[in-house]
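TICKET: design request
STATUS: open
ATTACHED STRUCTURE:
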């Protein structure tokens, strides 16, 4: 396939994303590198094009167009100083809250910083004078890259129009040849619909939305941090709709007191094994993507209407399957929905998910992975023994994944915390200490691996100096246990161990002594249970170390997965409903 076709299809998707979200006018400053963007816009039937040879003047002309119409206007130019000449107009647009869409074209990466003519660093060229910047990938026409191109175009317009309105910038690196295929393939219907968040949705709007969800085989997918009050609203919504909830462990939905059996606890263990009987007709997502990679991969394959209640207005959907954005505050919108008449449901849809989740739990409870002193069993016991209304902080890497897979509903109300912004293992002890300082009257617990513990040992000084009653359950597999689950495990030991296994061979009893904590090496689940139950009554600064084996951890997990697979294949879940 030619580079021309790849570039054309990719740019058509960018432009269609812009048009579908409201772009009707563009100001183009002619140049070579911008040729394909200029031609495709010029020939687009829904875009009125103005030509401005002087970029500085063209920029202010676009400001006038947008100011008078109160609509976004695109600015398109070639690479180099052409883009710099837009800067005065962009400064004015930023101060005056004008939604300009600046599309600068650029040399591809291989021509950067090698002396190629008409080339300068255009990344974040306008600094804080634009509200949003995106550096686009070099054009390709794979399905994923075409979806990405459309998504970025649609997002650009939406962000520019959000209050406060402001200019936004997209930089497009393009390779030669620069003439596009001039037989455009333009989609007939918008791929993404956005309900803006400028005001509260009307009762009529909400009723129309819920009518589309009524009598549908739907799923409610919840990520991010939620209050227990919001978690209760989500549980009620799922019950009203007759849908199962697939919630991230940090979302508190699975750790609140509830009676909704459709809150699935173990979906990460079986999402990649589901048959066609479990394909939904509709998905409603709330918040960022949950931690489960299995869930993310499954969602990315679902081609069904997907609604995203996007309170942050940041389009946090890595699957890019969202078709309708509801940019609204979560709790008020949920309350509006719950005030409506109960929609029609399909009882057997919810029931099959509940039965599958319960069947998986039965297999899990008999597995050596959950009955021996393993990381999974320790994680489940930590959660099950938490005191009511106490905080549980869970480290990144394996601990959060163990909790996601093996937590079970308890009678306690537990708030689960984690650093899932950028998912690093740095600063875990310090962050957990901050949570503990706010929760002195409860029995705060931290579940952490040995690498994350080592990475932030200085954080223990907070617990020591401020007498924080923090119990640290340390899962010590002497290295980076997560890599034993990833493709790197196929490497030779001589490569794997120093680069990914990274054993530390630390004596954590000495570390504990240094920071004035109580130390206990846990040798059985029974011993751990006793210590944790006692901690609920008498919280203190202590470290409970559990030594595990990386290889055994993987073997037992894979055996459990095989047992779940066999159960599903041998049950009625294999047949369609």
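STATUS: resolved
RESOLUTION: sequence designed for all positions
ATTACHED SEQUENCE:
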């Amino acid at each position: 396939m030619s580079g021309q076709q790849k570039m054309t299809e990719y740019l058509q998707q960018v432009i269609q994303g812009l048009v579908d979200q409201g772009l009707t006018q563009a100001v183009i400053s002619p140049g070579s590198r911008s040729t394909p963007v200029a031609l495709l816009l010029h020939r687009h039937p829904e875009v009125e094009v103005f030509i401005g040879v002087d970029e500085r003047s063209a920029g202010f002309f676009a400001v006038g167009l947008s100011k008078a119409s109160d609509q976004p206007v695109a600015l398109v130019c070639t690479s180099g100083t052409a883009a710099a000449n837009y800067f005065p107009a962009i400064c004015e647009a930023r101060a005056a809250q004008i939604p300009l869409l600046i599309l600068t074209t650029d040399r591809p990466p291989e021509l950067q910083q090698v002396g190629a003519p008409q080339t300068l660093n255009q990344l974040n060229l306008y600094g804080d004078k634009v509200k949003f910047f995106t550096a686009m990938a070099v054009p390709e026409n794979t399905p994923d890259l075409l979806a990405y191109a459309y998504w970025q175009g649609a997002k650009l317009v939406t962000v520019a129009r959000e209050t406060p309105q402001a200019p936004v910038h997209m930089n497009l690196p393009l390779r030669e040849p620069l003439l596009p295929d001039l037989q455009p393939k333009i989609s007939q219907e918008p791929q993404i619909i956005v309900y803006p968040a400028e005001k509260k949705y009307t009762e009529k709007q909400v009723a129309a939305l819920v009518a589309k969800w009524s009598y549908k085989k739907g799923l409610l997918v919840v990520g991010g941090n939620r209050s227990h009050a919001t978690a209760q609203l989500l549980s009620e919504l799922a019950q009203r709709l007759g849908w199962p909830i697939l919630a991230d462990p940090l979302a508190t939905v699975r750790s609140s007191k509830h009676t909704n059996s459709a809150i699935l606890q173990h979906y990460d263990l079986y999402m990649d094994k589901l048959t066609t009987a479990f394909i939904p007709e509709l998905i409603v997502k709330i918040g960022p993507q949950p931690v489960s990679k299995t869930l993310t991969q499954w969602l990315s394959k679902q081609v069904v209407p997907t609604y995203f209640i996007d309170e942050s207005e940041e389009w946090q959907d890595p699957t890019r399957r969202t078709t309708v954005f509801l940019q609204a505050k979560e709790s008020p919108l949920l309350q509006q929905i719950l005030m409506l008449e109960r929609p029609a449901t399909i009882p057997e849809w919810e029931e099959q998910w509940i039965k599958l989740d319960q069947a998986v739990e039965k297999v899990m409870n008999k597995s050596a992975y959950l009955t021996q002193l393993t990381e999974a069993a320790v994680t489940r016991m930590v959660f099950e023994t938490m005191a009511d209304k106490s905080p549980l902080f869970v480290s990144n890497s394996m601990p959060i994944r163990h909790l996601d897979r093996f937590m079970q509903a308890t009678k306690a109300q537990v708030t689960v915390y984690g650093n899932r912004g950028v998912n690093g293992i740095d600063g875990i002890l310090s962050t957990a200490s901050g949570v503990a300082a706010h929760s002195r009257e409860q029995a705060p617990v931290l579940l952490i691996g040995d690498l994350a513990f080592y990475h932030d040992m200085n954080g223990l000084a907070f617990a020591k100096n401020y007498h924080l009653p923090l119990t640290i359950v340390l899962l010590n597999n002497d290295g980076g246990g997560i890599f034993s689950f990833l493709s790197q495990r196929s490497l030779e030991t001589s490569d794997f161990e120093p680069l990914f296994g990274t054993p530390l061979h630390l004596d954590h009893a000495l570390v504990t002594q240094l920071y004035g904590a109580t130390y206990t090496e846990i040798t059985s689940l029974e011993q751990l249970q006793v210590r944790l139950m006692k901690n609920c009554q008498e919280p203190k600064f202590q470290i409970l170390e559990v030594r595990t084996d990386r290889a055994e951890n993987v073997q037992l997990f894979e055996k459990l997965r095989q047992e779940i697979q066999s159960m599903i294949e041998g049950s009625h879940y294999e047949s369609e409903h």
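CLOSING REMARK: The mean pLDDT is 92. The chain has three domains: 3-185, 203-346, 367-560.
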